[in-house]
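The pair is listed for reference:
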Amino acid sequence: MLLRSLWHGAIDGWTVPGSLDQLPAAQRLLAAGADREDLVRLVRAVAYEAVFATLDELDAGGGVNVSGVEAGWMVMEAGEDGSPTGRALSGLHEGLLAMDLSGRDGADLWQ
């Protein structure tokens, strides 16, 4: 559910008409003649990379990139009432591309 939500909001959210128009840099590029589809593909690819890196860091459990830190973390599943089920979610970054509802597993991001 988390991965589906991230793909839909953070990555595919940029395909919604008008999304690019909220970014001044995109407005300037469009005014200069940039192709809208290329810009959408670019921001989706950057969003994918940011989400993937975040999920990879969450999967690592902390302390990997910071010396002297003894704490870590884990992502836990929660029930409908918000209480933890006790089931840890792992390997999140590995399943991200499978959330692409187009069936292309994100292949269009790198065209």
About this structure: Strands lie at 75-78, 84-89. The chain has a mean pLDDT of 90.
